[in-house]
Specification:
By secondary structure, this protein is mostly helical. Helices cover about 75% and strands about 0% of the residues. It is globular.
């Protein structure tokens, strides 16, 4: 969990250091990362993730749709996998 939070913190620091960004873009990315983290920590149980975030399940569902958060994207945001690595590894493991 500390690694996920550190990763999110590093990502936010990198965004701020890159130059002028609108505050809303930084907040949006931080929200997206936190939602992904909550989903991962709660086994993608949306009700539990919503409770952990202190929002309603409906709000969480709207945010998931807004940000296009799939399981793979959540794992990427958390730093668990790299783009394109997981689907290949899963396909090889299933055969």
């Amino acid at each position: 969990m500390a690694e996920i939070m550190q990763s999110a913190s590093d990502t936010l620091s990198q965004q701020v250091a890159k130059g002028p960004k609108r505050l809303w873009a930084i907040c949006r990315n931080a929200e997206r990362v936190e939602i992904a983290r909550a989903l991962i920590e709660n086994g993608h149980n949306r009700t539990h993730a919503a409770n952990a975030l202190g929002i309603s399940r409906r709000t969480l569902l709207n945010k998931i749709k807004q940000y296009g958060l799939t399981r793979l994207i959540c794992r990427q945001l958390a730093g668990d996998v790299q783009l394109g690595v997981a689907p290949v590894a899963q396909a090889v493991g299933q055969n």
